[in-house]
Amino acid sequence: MKTTGLLGGSFNPAHGAHRSISLFAMEELAVDELWWLVSPGNPLKASAKDMAPLNARLASALKMARRSAIRPTAIEKQLGTRYTYDTILALVRKHPKRQFIWIMGADNLAQFHRWKDWRKIARLLPIAVISRPGYDVDAFAAPAMAWLRRFVHPASQRRSWTKWSTPALTFLRYRPDPRSATAIRLARPQWHKEHANRCVRDAVTRQLICPDD
């Protein structure tokens, strides 16, 4: 079984904090690969006018993931899934020889109860939560934690996640990283123009993602 971490996001654009957090999680959890699920859109957010096209966001992720075992993919677009549960279910069925773990920041755990079928997500695969400055208190007090708390494994057991029965949750302590996509967009609002006319190859499916996709 090939172990694979899954980290979802808009990657608008991908940046150094995405990479450093991912490499940290890969080391802590001893996974073979980590897939960046570059989302076509976030169901919890209204369509943002500053959301770059999918091909540009995937291109930025591919550039940021160079020389690593991080695999940026637009597989949600190709699967036709909109919600995380549907994506994960499709991946588990499509890749029976892989063992997946879902990785998310504490900010996402704080709103996890708003995700469609969030309990089903927790039953499908283990979850690793990475601390984020300013969000940890809200994450521990989040409605989802009232249910998840009994399934928490200590961080000292993090490399044994492949043996856990689900639901299963663990917390990874990560040093603060101030870099953000919002700051990059403020400094370089036209960052995506360099990728405007590019077709880029998905690192997982090997399909081309073009400007009109």
From TrEMBL:
It holds the Pfam family CTP_transf_like. Keywords: ATP-binding, NAD, Nucleotide-binding, Nucleotidyltransferase, Pyridine nucleotide biosynthesis, Transferase. It catalyses: nicotinate beta-D-ribonucleotide + ATP + H(+) = deamido-NAD(+) + diphosphate. It comes from the Bacteria. Its EC number is 2.7.7.18. Residues 6-168 form the Cytidyltransferase-like domain. This is Probable nicotinate-nucleotide adenylyltransferase. The lineage of its organism: Bacteria, Pseudomonadati, Pseudomonadota, Alphaproteobacteria, Sphingomonadales.
